[in-house]
Design a protein that fits this description.
The chain has 207 residues and is an alpha+beta fold. 32% of the residues lie in helices and 29% in strands.
Length: 207
């Protein structure tokens, strides 16, 4: 058994427990395939640096659906697989992808500087945004979205894995947290849910 497989096996019960807590307030939505929050709740606002050096503020994304995944660039398995699925969903949406913000938020701010995120995300899609900040800036974001992250040391001070929550968070165009989607979702299910959210009218009557 290789090292990555031992990591997944050793920590899978812990990850499952975190996922269960994250989903405790969720029930299946009638028109949605992911786990819908009932009722939807306002998505906590935050501002972080993106991988291009600009500020990303969640509340400034109103009018767009936001698909947000917490991970890190040194991740050996779940993160690249999830990002590949998000890239595939982005492609499947066609022109509708212009109204969806796909966002990768680091769970490893010590190593995931903007330049590191930029090189990493270029392997998947030029329009997936990477977000990072200091440990102090990241901490309230993790808390607000129920994200657990824990360093797992290996051979040296900068050689470690990060055990982290692996679900995808979906925020609708009016800024409400609507869905939690597991990292191993089917692309067609996520695309179907995003199309449902894109069709919903904004509360103020906007399109």
């Amino acid at each position: 058994m290789d090292e990555n497989m031992r990591f997944r096996t050793r920590h899978s019960p812990w990850i499952a427990a975190v996922a269960a807590l994250a989903l405790a307030a969720c029930t299946p939505g009638a028109a949605l395939r992911g786990e819908a929050l009932k009722p939807p709740r306002p998505a906590p606002d935050f501002a972080l640096r993106n991988h291009r050096g600009a500020t990303f503020r969640l509340s400034a994304q109103r009018g767009n659906v936001v698909v947000m995944f917490f991970g890190y660039t040194y991740c050996p398995d779940i993160c690249p697989l999830t990002l590949a699925r998000l890239r595939n969903a982005q492609a499947a949406l066609g022109p509708d992808a212009d109204r969806v913000r796909f966002v990768f938020v680091t769970a490893d701010p010590a190593r995931d500087r903007p330049d590191v995120l930029r090189r990493y995300l270029a392997l998947f899609s030029p329009t997936i945004l990477g977000l990072t900040g200091s440990e102090a800036e990241m901490r309230p974001v993790y808390t607000a979205y129920g994200v657990v992250h824990e360093k797992v040391p290996r051979d040296g001070p900068n050689d470690y894995l990060v055990n982290h929550s692996s679900h995808v968070t979906v925020i609708d165009r009016s800024g409400r947290w609507r869905l939690i989607v597991q990292h191993d979702h089917k692309t067609e299910d996520l695309v179907a849910d995003l199309r449902v959210l894109l069709r919903e009218p904004l509360p103020n009557g906007g399109s």
